[in-house]
Amino acid sequence: MGSNSSVRLRDGAGEGPAHKILIVDDEPQIIRVLRASLTSHGYDVRSASDGASGMDLYRLWAPDLVITDLSMPGVSGVELCREIRRLAATPILVLSVRDQDRSKVEALDAGADDYVTKPFSMEELQARVRAHLRRVAVPEAEASRPIHIGDFVIDADAHRVTVRGTDVRLTPKQFELLLYMAKHAGRVLTHRALLTAVWGIHSVGQPEYLRVFIGQLRKKIEIGPKPYLVTEPWIGYRFCPDPEQC
Question: Does this model's pTM top 0.90?
Fold first, then answer.
Protein backbone atom coordinates (compact mmCIF):
# COMPACT_ATOMS: atom_id res chain seq x y z
CA MET A 1 0.00 0.00 0.00
CA GLY A 2 1.45 3.34 -1.05
CA SER A 3 2.12 6.22 1.30
CA ASN A 4 0.03 9.33 1.54
CA SER A 5 1.06 12.28 -0.63
CA SER A 6 -0.56 15.35 0.93
CA VAL A 7 -1.14 18.38 -1.25
CA ARG A 8 -2.98 21.52 -0.19
CA LEU A 9 -3.92 22.87 -3.61
CA ARG A 10 -7.14 21.65 -5.19
CA ASP A 11 -6.73 21.10 -8.94
CA GLY A 12 -8.02 24.11 -10.84
CA ALA A 13 -9.71 25.61 -7.78
CA GLY A 14 -7.04 27.56 -5.87
CA GLU A 15 -6.46 27.21 -2.15
CA GLY A 16 -8.30 24.52 -0.24
CA PRO A 17 -8.12 20.86 0.68
CA ALA A 18 -7.01 18.60 -2.15
CA HIS A 19 -9.37 16.08 -3.68
CA LYS A 20 -8.45 12.60 -2.45
CA ILE A 21 -7.89 9.92 -5.11
CA LEU A 22 -7.35 6.23 -4.38
CA ILE A 23 -5.47 4.14 -6.99
CA VAL A 24 -5.84 0.36 -6.84
CA ASP A 25 -3.61 -1.57 -9.27
CA ASP A 26 -1.22 -4.51 -9.04
CA GLU A 27 1.20 -2.98 -11.57
CA PRO A 28 3.76 -0.79 -9.71
CA GLN A 29 4.61 1.09 -12.91
CA ILE A 30 0.97 2.12 -13.43
CA ILE A 31 0.76 3.33 -9.84
CA ARG A 32 3.99 5.34 -10.21
CA VAL A 33 2.82 7.02 -13.41
CA LEU A 34 -0.65 7.80 -12.08
CA ARG A 35 0.65 9.04 -8.74
CA ALA A 36 3.20 11.35 -10.38
CA SER A 37 0.66 12.81 -12.81
CA LEU A 38 -2.16 13.24 -10.28
CA THR A 39 -0.03 14.73 -7.51
CA SER A 40 1.48 17.17 -10.00
CA HIS A 41 -2.06 18.43 -10.60
CA GLY A 42 -2.69 19.00 -6.90
CA TYR A 43 -4.49 15.81 -5.86
CA ASP A 44 -3.94 13.94 -2.60
CA VAL A 45 -3.13 10.39 -3.74
CA ARG A 46 -2.91 7.05 -1.96
CA SER A 47 -2.55 3.62 -3.53
CA ALA A 48 -3.06 -0.09 -2.93
CA SER A 49 -1.69 -3.06 -4.88
CA ASP A 50 -4.73 -5.34 -4.62
CA GLY A 51 -8.48 -5.16 -4.22
CA ALA A 52 -8.60 -6.24 -0.57
CA SER A 53 -6.07 -3.61 0.52
CA GLY A 54 -7.85 -1.08 -1.64
CA MET A 55 -11.14 -1.76 0.09
CA ASP A 56 -9.52 -1.45 3.53
CA LEU A 57 -7.96 1.88 2.56
CA TYR A 58 -11.24 3.08 1.07
CA ARG A 59 -13.02 2.50 4.39
CA LEU A 60 -10.29 4.24 6.38
CA TRP A 61 -9.62 7.19 4.11
CA ALA A 62 -12.93 7.91 2.30
CA PRO A 63 -11.49 9.15 -1.02
CA ASP A 64 -13.34 11.45 -3.40
CA LEU A 65 -12.64 9.21 -6.41
CA VAL A 66 -11.31 5.69 -7.01
CA ILE A 67 -9.23 4.53 -9.98
CA THR A 68 -8.98 0.74 -10.14
CA ASP A 69 -7.63 -1.95 -12.42
CA LEU A 70 -9.98 -4.81 -13.28
CA SER A 71 -7.63 -7.81 -13.25
CA MET A 72 -6.00 -8.18 -9.84
CA PRO A 73 -5.19 -11.14 -7.60
CA GLY A 74 -7.72 -11.93 -4.90
CA VAL A 75 -10.43 -9.28 -4.92
CA SER A 76 -10.93 -8.14 -8.53
CA GLY A 77 -11.75 -4.64 -9.71
CA VAL A 78 -15.33 -5.72 -10.39
CA GLU A 79 -15.71 -6.98 -6.82
CA LEU A 80 -14.14 -3.78 -5.51
CA CYS A 81 -16.66 -1.70 -7.48
CA ARG A 82 -19.50 -3.75 -6.03
CA GLU A 83 -18.24 -3.36 -2.45
CA ILE A 84 -17.68 0.39 -2.76
CA ARG A 85 -21.11 0.90 -4.30
CA ARG A 86 -22.72 -0.83 -1.30
CA LEU A 87 -21.25 1.88 0.90
CA ALA A 88 -21.32 5.10 -1.09
CA ALA A 89 -21.75 6.87 -4.42
CA THR A 90 -18.04 7.65 -4.81
CA PRO A 91 -17.09 7.96 -8.51
CA ILE A 92 -15.20 4.90 -9.78
CA LEU A 93 -13.00 4.97 -12.88
CA VAL A 94 -11.77 1.55 -14.03
CA LEU A 95 -8.67 0.76 -16.08
CA SER A 96 -8.88 -2.08 -18.58
CA VAL A 97 -7.10 -3.61 -21.56
CA ARG A 98 -8.71 -3.80 -24.98
CA ASP A 99 -9.79 -7.46 -24.77
CA GLN A 100 -11.73 -6.99 -21.51
CA ASP A 101 -15.04 -5.84 -23.00
CA ARG A 102 -17.03 -8.33 -20.95
CA SER A 103 -15.22 -7.27 -17.77
CA LYS A 104 -15.88 -3.61 -18.55
CA VAL A 105 -19.59 -4.28 -18.82
CA GLU A 106 -19.46 -6.27 -15.57
CA ALA A 107 -17.71 -3.35 -13.88
CA LEU A 108 -20.33 -0.89 -15.11
CA ASP A 109 -23.05 -3.24 -13.88
CA ALA A 110 -21.27 -3.43 -10.52
CA GLY A 111 -21.38 0.34 -10.11
CA ALA A 112 -18.36 1.77 -11.97
CA ASP A 113 -18.99 5.14 -13.60
CA ASP A 114 -16.44 5.14 -16.39
CA TYR A 115 -13.42 3.33 -17.82
CA VAL A 116 -10.18 4.09 -19.63
CA THR A 117 -8.55 1.50 -21.88
CA LYS A 118 -4.84 0.67 -21.48
CA PRO A 119 -2.60 2.03 -22.87
CA PHE A 120 -4.22 5.36 -22.12
CA SER A 121 -3.46 9.03 -22.56
CA MET A 122 -2.76 10.85 -19.30
CA GLU A 123 -4.47 13.92 -20.76
CA GLU A 124 -7.66 11.93 -21.30
CA LEU A 125 -7.49 10.36 -17.84
CA GLN A 126 -6.95 13.76 -16.22
CA ALA A 127 -9.93 15.15 -18.14
CA ARG A 128 -12.15 12.31 -16.95
CA VAL A 129 -10.97 12.72 -13.36
CA ARG A 130 -11.80 16.45 -13.46
CA ALA A 131 -15.21 15.76 -14.96
CA HIS A 132 -16.17 13.21 -12.30
CA LEU A 133 -14.98 15.41 -9.44
CA ARG A 134 -16.88 18.42 -10.80
CA ARG A 135 -20.08 16.41 -10.98
CA VAL A 136 -19.94 15.31 -7.34
CA ALA A 137 -18.98 18.74 -5.97
CA VAL A 138 -21.70 21.02 -7.32
CA PRO A 139 -21.21 24.59 -6.02
CA GLU A 140 -23.93 26.14 -3.88
CA ALA A 141 -24.54 28.71 -6.60
CA GLU A 142 -25.67 25.91 -8.90
CA ALA A 143 -28.34 24.72 -6.49
CA SER A 144 -31.65 24.08 -8.23
CA ARG A 145 -35.19 23.24 -7.33
CA PRO A 146 -36.37 19.63 -7.65
CA ILE A 147 -37.83 18.66 -11.00
CA HIS A 148 -41.46 17.52 -10.80
CA ILE A 149 -42.30 15.76 -14.04
CA GLY A 150 -44.85 13.03 -14.66
CA ASP A 151 -44.37 10.22 -12.14
CA PHE A 152 -40.97 11.60 -11.09
CA VAL A 153 -39.47 14.01 -8.59
CA ILE A 154 -35.75 14.50 -9.22
CA ASP A 155 -33.78 16.53 -6.68
CA ALA A 156 -30.29 17.25 -8.03
CA ASP A 157 -29.03 18.85 -4.80
CA ALA A 158 -30.10 15.92 -2.62
CA HIS A 159 -29.23 13.38 -5.33
CA ARG A 160 -32.68 11.87 -4.80
CA VAL A 161 -35.22 10.35 -7.17
CA THR A 162 -38.76 9.27 -6.36
CA VAL A 163 -41.08 7.44 -8.75
CA ARG A 164 -44.75 7.59 -7.74
CA GLY A 165 -43.61 8.47 -4.23
CA THR A 166 -41.11 5.61 -3.95
CA ASP A 167 -37.42 6.42 -3.40
CA VAL A 168 -35.07 4.97 -5.99
CA ARG A 169 -31.34 4.68 -5.25
CA LEU A 170 -29.11 5.49 -8.21
CA THR A 171 -25.35 5.60 -8.71
CA PRO A 172 -23.85 8.97 -9.72
CA LYS A 173 -23.81 8.13 -13.43
CA GLN A 174 -27.29 6.60 -13.39
CA PHE A 175 -28.55 9.77 -11.72
CA GLU A 176 -26.72 12.06 -14.13
CA LEU A 177 -28.12 10.18 -17.13
CA LEU A 178 -31.68 10.31 -15.80
CA LEU A 179 -31.37 13.98 -14.88
CA TYR A 180 -30.16 14.89 -18.37
CA MET A 181 -32.97 12.93 -19.99
CA ALA A 182 -35.53 14.51 -17.63
CA LYS A 183 -34.37 17.98 -18.64
CA HIS A 184 -35.11 16.97 -22.24
CA ALA A 185 -38.22 14.89 -21.56
CA GLY A 186 -40.20 13.86 -24.62
CA ARG A 187 -37.35 14.61 -27.02
CA VAL A 188 -35.47 11.93 -28.92
CA LEU A 189 -31.88 12.07 -27.68
CA THR A 190 -29.26 10.53 -29.93
CA HIS A 191 -26.64 8.09 -28.69
CA ARG A 192 -23.97 10.70 -29.41
CA ALA A 193 -25.80 13.46 -27.53
CA LEU A 194 -26.26 11.28 -24.43
CA LEU A 195 -22.69 9.98 -24.46
CA THR A 196 -21.25 13.48 -24.86
CA ALA A 197 -23.47 15.02 -22.17
CA VAL A 198 -22.90 12.35 -19.52
CA TRP A 199 -19.46 10.83 -20.26
CA GLY A 200 -17.76 13.42 -22.46
CA ILE A 201 -16.70 13.65 -26.08
CA HIS A 202 -14.12 10.86 -25.65
CA SER A 203 -16.96 8.37 -25.16
CA VAL A 204 -18.90 8.82 -28.39
CA GLY A 205 -17.41 5.62 -29.79
CA GLN A 206 -18.34 3.54 -26.75
CA PRO A 207 -22.11 2.90 -27.02
CA GLU A 208 -21.93 0.08 -24.47
CA TYR A 209 -22.11 2.80 -21.80
CA LEU A 210 -25.66 3.59 -22.83
CA ARG A 211 -26.74 -0.01 -23.27
CA VAL A 212 -25.59 -0.89 -19.76
CA PHE A 213 -26.83 2.23 -17.97
CA ILE A 214 -30.20 2.39 -19.73
CA GLY A 215 -30.70 -1.25 -18.75
CA GLN A 216 -29.79 -0.43 -15.14
CA LEU A 217 -32.18 2.51 -15.02
CA ARG A 218 -35.03 0.46 -16.47
CA LYS A 219 -34.62 -2.14 -13.74
CA LYS A 220 -34.74 0.53 -11.04
CA ILE A 221 -37.39 2.97 -12.24
CA GLU A 222 -39.88 1.09 -14.40
CA ILE A 223 -42.76 -0.14 -12.27
CA GLY A 224 -45.52 -0.64 -14.82
CA PRO A 225 -46.09 -2.27 -18.21
CA LYS A 226 -45.34 0.92 -20.15
CA PRO A 227 -41.70 2.09 -20.33
CA TYR A 228 -40.36 5.40 -19.12
CA LEU A 229 -37.23 4.99 -21.27
CA VAL A 230 -38.26 4.41 -24.86
CA THR A 231 -35.79 3.05 -27.41
CA GLU A 232 -35.74 4.83 -30.74
CA PRO A 233 -34.14 2.18 -33.02
CA TRP A 234 -30.80 3.21 -34.54
CA ILE A 235 -31.15 6.72 -33.12
CA GLY A 236 -31.19 6.84 -29.33
CA TYR A 237 -33.67 7.08 -26.44
CA ARG A 238 -36.57 9.20 -25.24
CA PHE A 239 -37.59 9.82 -21.62
CA CYS A 240 -41.35 9.53 -21.14
CA PRO A 241 -42.11 10.46 -17.48
CA ASP A 242 -45.82 9.85 -17.99
CA PRO A 243 -46.23 6.75 -20.20
CA GLU A 244 -49.96 7.35 -20.54
CA GLN A 245 -49.24 10.51 -22.51
CA CYS A 246 -46.47 9.19 -24.76
Answer: no
